[in-house]
Fold this sequence. Notes:
This protein is mainly beta. It is about 5% helix and about 45% strand. The two termini are about 35 Å apart.
Amino acid sequence: MNWPVKLALLISTCLFFEGKSPSGASDWPQFLGPDRNSVSREKDLIKSWPKDGPKILWEREVGVGYSGPAVSDGSLILFHRLDDKEVVEALDSQTGKTRWSFSYDTNYQDDLGKGDGPRSTSLLSNGFVYSLGAEGHLHCLDLKTGKKIWDRALAKDYPFRKGFFGVATSPIIEGDALVLNVGSKGAGIVAFDKMTGKELWKATNHEASYSSPVAATIGSSRHLFFLTREGLVSLDPADGKVRCSKRWRSRMAASVNAATPVVVEDQVFLSACYGTGAVLLKVTKDELEEIWKGDETLSNHYDTSIHHAGFLYGLDGRQEEGAQLRCVDIKTGKVQWTEKSFGCASLILADGRFFALTENGDLVLFEANPKAYHELARASVLAGPCRSPLALANGRLFGRDGKKLVCWDVKK
């Protein structure tokens, strides 16, 4: 083997083991990041910033909505509402300039005045964009051009109850299937062929929640975990067969399940507010065994907790009452520390530290430390309410409120 070939192999190997995606970039292609757990593999990120926050690389005006940014192959997908249109827009992630825009009509009106824009975060996979609007309009678009590949009007094909805040779950891809919690009778969870939109299978009568699914291999079995409005359900992604389930929801009708299940090895952590609390379950092939549960540990309203080195970091309490940040021992459910009045926030773990964007618009950096809360930096950067999840890709942090999207440089 000649030297140039050896060098090329060495470079590609190094890039692979640095945790790079197949495209050679540290992308954030879906809700909660590459592994759907809000954990980034990026290193050499900043450990503090000035009083005004990290350096802004670009910013731009946006429409309404709580959909988070998704980044892949140099494109950032912004999903928002402008006037009476839901708009899927591809931006250059380096500059914020528009590459293409795709839109369609929407009549969605939020019954509780929480905003009329889309909630679901788009999913980017193998050159395609999958977006799900507030009324349940599902689209597959070409990532390079914005050309429509297929679409489904889910509310027409699978009539479902509107819910308190419209459709907000973010879909997942497993193999050849795009899967989501539709919430219709006989079609609570539906898998679609990701290339054509054709139904592959459907399962359960569970109504839709505001939680998003995750996938995991436990033992020799592959599981799709959904926290629906009724509770946890594990499905075989091959055919939609229910492996096991557990009712987990409030007794209050005016309540929601919103945080995504957190899978750690052979265990699943669930959390919800409205007097529901948290539970840690051990998963076998067809059974769920309670390890611990309680309403005094970590009750997530809508932000998903993050697991790191045996501890859970997350927000405890209702958004209206002012959530508190907590660290909890996952083995026992014991609270390690509490930072009061932190507020609901989107969290990302990267390089041993947490980036947080609070609902009132503060960008916060704090240590992943189970012994005590140690804040490294804080700045007021956006106007609340900020309920869209953050994204981190290639040393750039992306966050938005109801008026603008900002790209910060967080590389050393």
